[in-house]
Each structure stands twice: as structure tokens, then as C-alpha cells.
Amino acid sequence: MAYSATIKKAVGDLRKTLAEIGIERQDVRFAEHGEHAPLPGAPTVLVACSGGRDSMALAALSHIVSGMLGIHCGAVIVDHRLQAGSGEIAQDAASRCKDLGLQPVIVRTINVGGIGKGRSVEDAARQARYESIIETARGIDAVAVLLAHTRDDQSETVLMDVLTRSAGIDALAGMPTTFVRDGIRFVRPFLDLTRSQTTAICRELKMTWWDDPTNGDTVPLDQPLPQSYPLRSRVRHTLIPYLSRFFDGDVSDHLAQAARVASEDKDFLEAATEDLYHNAVKRNSVDAAVVMLVKPLADAHPAIRRRVIARVLAELDIPFVSSHVLSIETLVTDWHGQGALSIPSKYSVSRQKHVIRVCKNG
Question: Residue 32's pLDDT band (boundaries 50, 70, 90)?
Fold first, then answer.
């Protein structure tokens, strides 16, 4: 079958991303035409599939690429049970993945907790979804999980983080192409593809998909989405098109390009952060507190110091914004005996002479 330029690009991006994490052709015979069963012990990759156009395009092309490389490719579908009929939607996505030839195809049904405890429904669902996907990947010994985030998702993420989180270069860098969470490697091979391209891929391959009604796709573009819709949907439907008209250009493309440049700067900062973290952060095995040593933090550049503080909060699963990091930093740079700081998730941060302790209240 002769593929379009869009599919060829997507396949090339997927193969390149897999090669960057060490997944390449397992044997020369997989370069030949025809279908070939993977060799015993070949690695397995897992597609996180929602049934939407982006993840269905990724599932289809992952099956094609897995045949080119001689690897196994499965799928995991997570049913959050947050919408009526979600179980049927998940089973339908699973059926389409099976029809593509993916194996195994696993449906996970989860309960989304933590809503209203400093987290939105979207944040809580994301956390629960990752936990379920990680457990599934471990269960089948998958070497990587493929996520279908596109260039549009990247630009939306950058815009939301810059406007709501004030996270500095981390906000500008957006989503990384690859990252490790709880020992599982996640990969985003479609960050250079647009949503319109994944739509074109599905249509070319004659694949159907499910559109989440909270995306607002049925609302006319000249009508802003109500506040009841998720923030990402409102940014996608209303804000980015408005900014593109205002600046008379493709704002989504500009934001994605900025993310690529900023991600390289972020990599450099992360390396310096890693060194300082190992020199300045210790864990107290007695009371599970995290202890940060003041002197190495005080001697460090503020940008690196703040990143270490942010990393400590993230590792403790504490939701935070830049003001929390800056407040903790004053215990390093402007300490004059002030008391403990209260931060989210019932944690407190206090300085005791030459150390700063981050621990649960009580």
C-alpha cells in the first residue's frame, strides 16, 4: 500500500523516537515485505489509547512500525468512569485496537480520587490514569508506553503553564518527548504532528474514532466554550484561535517551536539540578522527612536552587506553584528565625540551624 506523505512522516517520527530509546529493528528479515512474527524475547511497547483520533492514529502506525522492527505492540485503555457510557467507549476502543492486530489489548477500569483536595478533576484523572498505565506496563514487562500527544497538545500545555503556573523555563519547554515515571519509560512520538494530521491519518486508513464531548468540537468556533468545560478544551477551542487571528499567524506552531528550544535549555539546567540535589537533599528514615542542607543550596545559583526545591515537592507529590518555591527559598536566603511554612497536602517546611525539613504536619 502506498502511504501519503503525512503517514510517512508519522512513521518516520515514530521510528526515530523508538530508536532514541534503543528500540530498533530486531533482525534483517523484518526489512523484507510481508508479515513476520516477532522473535522470542523481542521487546514490547504499549500504546495508551483513549479511542480518540490521536491515539487511534498512534495505535495504527505503532502496529505498522512494530512489524517493521520485529517487536510486540499492545494497547491499554483506561476507563475513568467519569462520563455516562464510558465502559462502552473503552470496550469499543479495545475492539478497534484488536482489529488492528495489537496484542495484548487491556482495558483498565479505575476510580478517580483526590478531587477537591487541591486538584481538579482533570489533574486527579491524569494521576490515576498514569498509575493504572504504569501497573499495566509492569505486568506485561513493556519497555515503553507510547502517548499520542500532538503539537497542538504541546502548544496548549505551554500556554496553560505560562499563564497559570509561572513555572519559568519548565513551562516554556512543555512536554518532553520521553520521560521516566516510577521506572516506566513514556514516549511521545507525535509532538511534531498536528491534530489535523492525525485526523488525516485516521481517514486515510479508514479508521473511526471517538470524540470526547468535553473537547467542545461540536460548538461553533465563533462561540466561546462555557467555563464548565475543561481548561484545555477552552484553550484549544477559544484562546489559541483568537491569538492566531490577533497575531495573524499560527500561534500553535510558534509555541511548539519555543518548546523545542526551551527543552534544550531545560536539559542543561536539569543536569546541574541533579548534581545539587544529590549534594543537598537527604531523607530521614526515622520520620520520613526530607532534609535539605542549607549551605550547598545557599552557594548555588538561584535557578538551580529553586529547581531542587521544586523537585523535592514534586517527589513528595505535593501540588505547588512558584510562590511555594519562593517562600521556601527565603528559609535559605533570608532566614531570621521565622517559623514553619504551611504548604499543600498538610506538609510544613521549617529551618533548624543548618538544615531545612519538609515533613507531614504532626
Answer: confident
CA-closest candidate to residue 36, choices 4, 9, 72: 72
Helix ranges, 101-226 (H): 121-139, 151-164, 169-173, 195-204
Average of per-residue pLDDT across 292-303: 96
Whether 46 and 145 have beta carbons less than 8 Å apart is answered as yes
Q: In whole angstroms, what is the distance from residue 147 CA to residue 50 CA?
A: 10
Residue 276, classed as helix, strand or coil, is helix
Q: What does the alpha-carbon distance between residue 78 and residue 107 come to, in Å, rounded to a whole number?
A: 6
User: Does the N-terminal peptide bond of residue 302 adopt cis geometry, omega within 30 degrees of 0?
Assistant: no
Domains of the chain: 5-149+188-210 (3.40.50.620), 215-249 (no CATH), 266-360 (3.30.465.60)
Q: Strand, helix or coil at 41?
A: coil
Please give the Cα distance from 230 to 298 (Å, whole number). Answer: 40
Type of residue numbered 108: R
Residue-level pLDDT at 143: 97
The pTM of this model reads 0.84
Burial class of residue 3, CB neighbours in 10 A (0-12, 13-18, 19+):
middle
Alpha-helical (H) ranges within 86-120 are 86-100
The strand pairing partners of 178, in sequence order, are: 187
> Running DSSP on this structure, what letter comes out for residue 211?
-
pLDDT at 1: 65
Tell me the pLDDT band of 9, cut-offs 50, 70 and 90: very high
Mean pLDDT of the region 294-315: 95
